[in-house]
TrEMBL record:
Coiled-coil annotated residue ranges, if any: none
Family: Belongs to the Churchill family.
Keyword Coiled coil on entry: no
Gene: CHURC1
Protein name: Protein Churchill
The entry's keywords: Activator, Developmental protein, Metal-binding, Transcription, Transcription regulation, Zinc
Length: 118
């Protein structure tokens, strides 16, 4: 028996809001939560089915945002972390929390931030 996870656009103000460089490894972006479209309550959002896997040096964290009252799946959250060249790269994709990416240099001085000498 196969179960598919459907996400609910009726539970959020805006689907996949742009969060700039704010990547959440855990938690929920409650400012975007309207309330549960299934039971019509606006209560806590729980995290369930959390899984972490390492895929060839890339860490992938996934979990479901679930209504506390009726176990309705609000959204599926995916967060990734990897090191590419001299940067730590982060991404997030979630209907509730939004989409975001960030890259941080592992060097003491970020080459992207240094001013040209001439």
């Amino acid at each position: 028996m196969t179960f598919s996870v459907r996400m609910c656009n009726g539970c959020v103000h805006k689907e996949y809001p742009d969060r700039g460089n704010t990547c959440l490894e855990n938690g929920s972006y409650l400012m975007n939560y309207l309330g549960c479209a299934n039971c019509h309550q606006r209560d806590f959002v729980l995290i369930s089915n959390k899984a972490t896997e390492d895929d060839d040096g890339e860490e992938i964290v996934t979990y479901d945002h679930v209504c506390k009252n009726c176990d309705h799946v609000i959204a599926r959250h995916e967060y990734t972390f990897s090191v590419v060249d001299e940067y730590q790269e982060y991404t997030m994709l979630c209907m509730l929390c939004g989409k975001a990416e960030d890259a941080i240099s592992v060097l003491p001085d970020d080459p992207r931030q240094s001013a040209p000498l001439f």
